[in-house]
UniProtKB/TrEMBL annotation:
One Pfam family linked to the record: Radical_SAM
Sequence similarity: Belongs to the anaerobic coproporphyrinogen-III oxidase family. HemW subfamily.
Major localisation: cytoplasm
Subcellular location: Cytoplasm
Organism: Microbacterium aurum
Role this protein plays: Probably acts as a heme chaperone, transferring heme to an unknown acceptor. Binds one molecule of heme per monomer, possibly covalently. Binds 1 [4Fe-4S] cluster. The cluster is coordinated with 3 cysteines and an exchangeable S-adenosyl-L-methionine.
The protein's name: Heme chaperone HemW
Amino acid sequence: MGSALPLGDPAPLDGALPDDLVIDPQRDFGVYLHVPFCRVRCGYCDFNTYTAGELRGARQDAYADEVIREIALSRRVLADRGPLRPASTVFFGGGTPTLLPAGDLGRMLAGVRDAFGLAPDAEVTVEANPDTVTAPMAAELAAAGVTRMSIGMQSAVPHVLAALDRTHDPAGVATAVAAARSAGLDVSVDLIYGAPGESLEDWRASVETAVALAPDHVSAYALIVEEGTKLARQIRRGEVPEPDDDLQADMYELVDETLAAAGFDWYEVSNWARTPAQRSRHNLAYWRGTDWWGYGPGAHSHVGGLRWWNVKHPAAYAQRLAAAQSPAAGRERPDAAARRLEDVLLRSRIADGLAVSELSGEGRHAVASLIADGLIDGAAAVRGRVVLTRRGRLLADAVVRALTA
């Protein structure tokens, strides 16, 4: 059911933004729609998701209407602060968004369109588990305005999927990709590496299988052990080994080399695309710190430097909206120093990098030693940009510490 919400200031029940908050009307506006439902809970997952037995009175069949109520509330809040911006990106995440009927997802998207409009080239992504995707469903999503499907492949190896508590048949990934393609959707596949018992050859098989599917985009994330998860308990009891950092580094190098050979370029530490146009613009908006409103239980938002987050449980979320109240549980406004630190942390992860001139004096002095250590691209630094090398991507946290010392 996810990690605890952050501490922060109380959020007003009407959802109003601070009077002195400045919103840039030229800045992109993104929308995140959280669908918190899953058939089973994966042992490694600490996202805010719920199986049927954990809903405690919340109803999946009422969920789309609840989100549409929050969208309407957000429109009233933002309309009081200046001209409304059309959504440049929309992302249905979860959980498993495709556990809801395609018609419900379409109605939620229509709610966004009615409230704000969609930019003419809006990117609209739906995350999907492979075993929930059918050709008719993909066609209905495309007709509703979805442009992109992100399919949770995770692995092509049965024993690795079992270690991750994934329930889909590996063969079903190709079927899901074909269904999305037949509907005219762009396709991304998501992979996870470093699962208990996964060898480098297992990982090679998964990466090569993913490449053979000819997706437009690939995400590959190292398995992280989150406190409170089943996996963390298994490791603590000695039932399965902890992820091996050296093996995960080898796995990262393998996926980067294999995808590069297949014509993909990295654009963020864990993400590769065939062309710049096929990068996830929604995720890039997060890394660049633009504005977005997150809808649904536990969803986070960021507008004009203000951050807030919703109540976690779907039942509490529904109760707030039924009472015509904002579901926001708390909010915070990081100061300038915190924003600078976060900016370096996020933008150093993308291939565009960040300007050397934006670093503090100590950070600029660190650039030369980071180049000497092979962590920052020297040619890019001469052009005034901090861009990670492959080795730097493996040690991104250390690079950030040096740049923000």
